[in-house]
Amino acid sequence: MESKDYLKDISEIKNMMNKSSRFISLSGLSGILAGIYALIGAAIAYWLVTTSVRGYLILDGAIFRICLFILLMVAFLSIVTGIILTTKKAKKHGAKIWDATSKRLVYNFLIPMVAGGLYIIIILSQGKYGHTGGLMLIFYGLALVNASKYSIGDIQYLGLIQIALGLIAALFPGYGFWLWVLGFGVMHIVYGTWMHFKYDVNK
Amino acid sequence: MSIITNINKAFDHRIRLGIMSILMVNEYADFKMLKELLEATDGNLASHTKALEKAEYIKVEKQFIGRKPNTRYSTTNLGRAEFKKHISALEKLINKQ
């Protein structure tokens, strides 16, 4: 028995533990694109609201409905892009896209996301919308922290940043929009770039 | 010499090492999952799971999902303890050199 064999054993153990419990084919590039979608969406919404007659957002206007539509489009495009790029990356690695690890990842990500989404819809229907930006950041952050146990561990830090931004937004509701832009737009781009160079480029 | 005694012969094979590694971080794994992850043949995997089962390092549960039989594996407390010992023995051997 050589020590080289033992080293191989240890790396095999590590490899199997990770491979069997974490889905690591998430694409950094999809994070960058999600950030760009969010910035474009926010810019359109900002332009619509500031050039409207009132100059601010009210809950039952047409502009509010358009903003809601933009928000859904941003979310939809981000998810589709994420799925396509992640599938591509998984294929390149020879990993399966829909296996026990990715199912577990999606399940754990969705629990805070669905709870938060429903909560926001409920309070919007009650006419309270001042905290929507902060709530979105907090629940999204919680979803990321929860999902990080089943994927690349670094996602946790992005989640913690989103939660912090969400709490700041709760303190200063007037800046909710800008914190949302910072969290969903800028942070996604910064983080996606970091992930892209850390995991995608060298391999 | 004392370190060498902690190297467990029962884990001294790539497939067995793999089975234990997977079961350490998952509540359980079924035969298909082990097979895909370890890229082993049915017969090969079956003989190694049997060996680990015999040593009482893993538990085997047979059940039906719908009409399909499904065999799933999980570690025993003994298996976890022995595997941890094995890993730290490996680490010590590596650090020594």
UniProtKB/TrEMBL annotation, chain A:
Keywords: Membrane, Transmembrane, Transmembrane helix. The chain crosses the membrane at residues 23-49, 61-85, 105-124, 130-148, 155-172. This is Uncharacterized protein.
UniProtKB/TrEMBL annotation, chain B:
Keywords: DNA-binding. SUPFAM superfamilies: Winged helix' DNA-binding domain. Gene3D superfamilies: Winged helix-like DNA-binding domain superfamily/Winged helix DNA-binding domain. GO terms for molecular function: DNA binding. It comes from Algibacter pectinivorans. It holds the Pfam family HTH_34. This is Winged helix DNA-binding domain-containing protein. Residues 15-94 form the Winged helix DNA-binding domain. InterPro entries: WH-like_DNA-bd_sf, WH_DNA-bd_dom, WH_DNA-bd_sf. It comes from the Bacteria. The keyword Aminoacyl-tRNA synthetase does not apply. The keyword DNA-binding applies.
